[in-house]
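Module 6 notes. Inverse folding takes a fixed backbone as the condition and produces residue identities as the prediction. Think of it as a translation problem where the source language is geometry and the target language is the twenty amino acids. Below is one complete input and output pair. Work through it position by position during the lab.
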């Protein structure tokens, strides 16, 4: 009884049984359309967020959060750089490395990145040792010229543990016959599987001292790789380390090295969100239709309210309240449905696979088990806001049309 008159009448119209059943059906279709759009959009963005997280995590398992390398010449005082880095509480681990592009020759040829590491220190910056499928990372010993290959790289080269592979390095050397590439035969001592094609097919690991001997670098390395407790501050930590070492250094972090991949993933997620928002827009258009039909059906009621003294603004508020409540109900149902569907999506996927006898996410193709999801509160809030905004604007024209009703014309044939 304490509600304003337009709000009270709008709520009454929402609860009342209408004489025209088709209008009620259109209103219900509007609610279901908005709810379905919100549910699908929340679930889709959660799945895409899960895959992005999976790609990012697998990538960061094999790469450093940040690197500090010398500008041009090899980094000679890398031991000091590692010690200085470990003194920083933000750094979880530090290790030297050498990176060099090379051509590997087995049954077939394949270009790849050769990385020289210290096996004992490599554990502090990556999970490479835990990704070994055959052999151990510790089998890389100085002077043995052993090499560890990614799974896909070994398959492409047609090699297994115990075979030999000829490595042609991009760093050329001068000989009496002219400039010749550096070649060295390595023995395959292990195979790793990172679960990311870029590393499984494009990375080979050797002991850092073996690569130093082949490249004639002395004790120099390419740089120092850092693993941090908080990877979001990778650039600041690497910059601080370079300033403390006082030399011309080049610093990079995980976000800049893989900027194109993350930018493409973000753009893909944005475009999918825009396209799926059209489902919510369809529900909003149904809301416009139902409200226009309701205004036509309630012409006599509007005329009586006007003769009783209700202003055109009050009439407009009645139908805006009624239409907005439809949007609120649809949005709430969609948010609840989207959250519940996302949380139980993997169980639903398993039921479908068992029921139809199919494998929707084969592990040998996607390198994952199950369907990764990441439900973000920010995405849910944005989707809910978009749905409510569309619903609100969908009520403006029908409500304005109701406020323009002339009482005399509406009651002429009543």
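Target side of the pair, the amino acids:
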């Amino acid at each position: 009884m304490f509600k304003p008159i337009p709000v009270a009448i709008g709520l009454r119209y929402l609860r009342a049984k209408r004489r025209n059943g088709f209008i009620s059906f259109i209103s219900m279709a509007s609610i279901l359309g908005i709810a379905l759009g919100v549910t699908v959009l929340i679930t889709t963005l959660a799945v895409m967020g899960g895959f992005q997280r999976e790609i990012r995590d697998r990538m960061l398992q094999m790469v450093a959060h940040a690197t500090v390398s010398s500008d041009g010449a090899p980094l000679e005082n890398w031991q000091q750089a590692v010690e200085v880095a470990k003194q920083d509480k933000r750094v979880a681990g530090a290790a030297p490395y050498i990176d060099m592009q090379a051509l590997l020759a087995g049954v077939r040829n394949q270009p790849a990145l050769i990385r020289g590491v210290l096996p004992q220190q490599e554990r502090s910056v990556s999970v490479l040792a835990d990704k070994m499928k055959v052999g151990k990372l510790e089998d890389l010993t100085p002077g043995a010229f052993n090499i560890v290959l990614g799974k896909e790289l070994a398959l492409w080269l047609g090699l297994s543990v115990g075979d030999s592979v000829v490595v042609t390095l991009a760093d050329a050397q001068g000989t009496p016959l002219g400039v010749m590439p550096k070649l060295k035969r390595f023995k395959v001592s292990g195979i790793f599987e990172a679960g990311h094609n870029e590393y499984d097919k494009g990375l080979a690991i050797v002991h850092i001292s073996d690569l130093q001997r082949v490249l004639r670098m002395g004790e120099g390395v390419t740089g120092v790789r850092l693993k941090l407790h908080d990877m979001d501050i990778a650039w600041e930590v690497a910059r601080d380390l370079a300033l403390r070492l006082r030399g011309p250094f080049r610093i990079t972090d995980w976000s800049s090295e893989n900027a194109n991949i993350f930018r493409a993933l973000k753009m893909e997620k944005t475009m999918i969100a825009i396209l799926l928002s059209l489902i919510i827009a369809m529900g909003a258009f149904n809301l416009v239709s139902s409200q226009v039909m309701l205004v036509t059906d309630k012409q006599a009621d509007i005329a009586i309210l006007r003769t009783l003294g209700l202003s055109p603004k009050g009439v407009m508020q009645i139908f805006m309240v009624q239409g907005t409540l439809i949007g609120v109900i649809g949005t709430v149902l969609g948010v609840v449905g989207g959250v519940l569907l996302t949380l139980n999506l993997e169980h639903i996927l398993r039921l479908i696979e068992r029921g139809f006898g199919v494998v929707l996410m084969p592990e040998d193709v996607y390198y994952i088990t199950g369907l990764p999801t990441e439900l973000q509160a920010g995405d849910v809030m944005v989707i809910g806001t978009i749905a409510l905004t569309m619903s609100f604007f969908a009520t403006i024209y029908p409500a304005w049309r109701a406020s323009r009703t002339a009482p005399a014309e509406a009651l002429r044939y009543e």
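Reference fact for the lab report: Residues 18 and 24 are 7 Å apart (CA to CA).
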